Amino acid sequence: MTEQFREVDLCVTAPRGFRAGAVACGIKSDAAIKDLAILASDVPCVAAGTFTTSRTPAAPVLLCREYLRGGKAQAVVVNSGNANCATGEQGLRNAYRMSELAAARLGIPKELVLCSSTGIIGRQLPMEKIERGITAIELSSDSGNDFAEAILTTDTRPKRIALEFEIEGRTVRLGGATKGAGMIYPNMATMLCYLTTDVAVEQAWLQEELRAAVANSFNMISVDGDMSTNDTCLLLANGLAGNTPLNEAHPEAGHFREALHRVTTYLAREIARDGEGATKLMTVHVRGARDQADAIKAARAITLSPLWQCALAGGDPNWGRIVAALGASGCTLDPDRFDIFIGPVQVVQQGGAAPYDEAAARSVMAASEVTITIDLHLGEAEATAWGCDLTHGYIDENTLYTR
Amino acid sequence: MTEQFREVDLCVTAPRGFRAGAVACGIKSDAAIKDLAILASDVPCVAAGTFTTSRTPAAPVLLCREYLRGGKAQAVVVNSGNANCATGEQGLRNAYRMSELAAARLGIPKELVLCSSTGIIGRQLPMEKIERGITAIELSSDSGNDFAEAILTTDTRPKRIALEFEIEGRTVRLGGATKGAGMIYPNMATMLCYLTTDVAVEQAWLQEELRAAVANSFNMISVDGDMSTNDTCLLLANGLAGNTPLNEAHPEAGHFREALHRVTTYLAREIARDGEGATKLMTVHVRGARDQADAIKAARAITLSPLWQCALAGGDPNWGRIVAALGASGCTLDPDRFDIFIGPVQVVQQGGAAPYDEAAARSVMAASEVTITIDLHLGEAEATAWGCDLTHGYIDENTLYTR
What pLDDT score was predicted for residue B353? Predict the structure, then answer.
């Protein structure tokens, strides 16, 4: 099955008809670091988006929500280093101005240019730098990786992927780039994700597919996609593959869905793995739950426990922390029935200590990826969440963020 | 007004008719540290309790809930170093046995002896050590502070208080001791609190007053009293002051309520101040909220933000972290109306940056107590929450907890 989806390079510019470019325009204190980028399609795209549900959304989020009402977009302009949040009327004007400048640069209607910002909250955007930067950006179809780099903040590395597969016998592509590293608490990190494809799709169906894909990927990592001020996930589909537009009835709809799921899950895991100060990726799989909501609650609760995250950092199979987080999660459980496994090692049997090999458990905990499996033995529902460990690096990174 | 409530020594043994004692029985690895204690009244007490709502409650919590159905108790036996949680049938039998042993030692019915445990989850209690320890405990009316010490785990110091005041012209006392330090996330720490008084009270009224006092104190610190496996708050009222039992209609009911509020708030703040690795106490006061639920949501959200906690540790007035936490809290707000103050320094005005003196803000942030005030300008409701900063000490403490 795997060769149905082949990895290719260039992430967001991998699909036909997408170009990107990035510059260092001086928003970030280090003038050598790229902090402004444009991603554009040669033709208007069917577009879908999911955004933060914060009550203090950033200005660019308000712009995206408005412009996406038409279900179309052709480009997005993104800056890092400044979140354009808590910036009032001026901030909103600046977001619209940023979109307008990029539209002029690209020669397309401003309503087709979305925008995003990420970085420090509460400062106005340096519009002169942005204006000069937009003018200086050169777009090309092999600059997807530059785009992926320019959107980063405290990330230690870019997160990008593109898959190639077939729809109606045509070779098509789906690419994505994302950022986000402030990981420990779900409502703080800014997560930005840009997905592009040359597949033709119907807008309403695309929006629903994006919502579902985000629910199982970005909303299952320890950055709760719906809670930060700037969180944004956009999908632009320019249709240049020329297939019959996909909808629920299309026989190959599931194939696109699978590609989308693979791309979003990959990118979500990469965000978790690159959490601020993180040294380990944690995967929590809950099965046997009474229903899906319970499975999600339980899985997320484990990834969100700083005490368990610390134990993970220390390679300490202190499963009592898992039990406490599970009990506090609010999921339905029978305290005398659930099992817990650290990797393949069963540490809890029917709610109490299982007889296990401590050395084996420590060996599993020492790896850079650790999987926790919880079987609630109450039903058939399951869910997977991803997180990371909590280390001194996180503290260092956030103690003096604005200085 | 203050002299109506005078501080006196000996915490839980300050009220007449209460005795306590503690020993080091060897549950903790350091054999010199007290880890087993008994608190007892000379006569049966009207008793009230609030407990964790975790789905994996510890065995002693199950015992307390059962025994408190009668609304009476005379003593409590507590061990630290072992939580007796996730210990199944054997754990439950051990909790009842612990109560029975203490009852035999005191010569009172076992149903009047409550018990608590705190420490590592998932290990059976060492019952032989506990049995020998209970036999060895000597009770006296001046050992309240020994009791306060023996219930500690990762706490750096005891938290205890006693107030003396008048009811019906009689001098009465209310004392309390508490523990809890795993502070950063609300559903993890074990918080134990024992309150004693010689005031006569009606049981139903006492239970309701305790619930209300806990809601405004322990449930407003960054240890969510209703979410850990072992959280317990008990109040024993032996009535030896001889007053007409207090109920809602008693003219001095409010006076007792005020004393109870002062004691629980003091103890809650002390827990927050002594959070694992904490160097600073944070007080968050939210006013102008549409309703009480919103005020609580907003205040707690700020204390629970690890990013803001890190900024607090570094003395960095990075108020964007407060805005993000506020927006994510789910409280109703108008993004163009709220104000934020760090100490007396207004840093946010109508949802955006206020012109403030950076040096003044940094000076406030450098203190060991920092108060954040948020005015939502939407109504009359208010709430106060307490928390602490997040430092390397927290990571160190929890990385290798079971080793």
Answer: 93
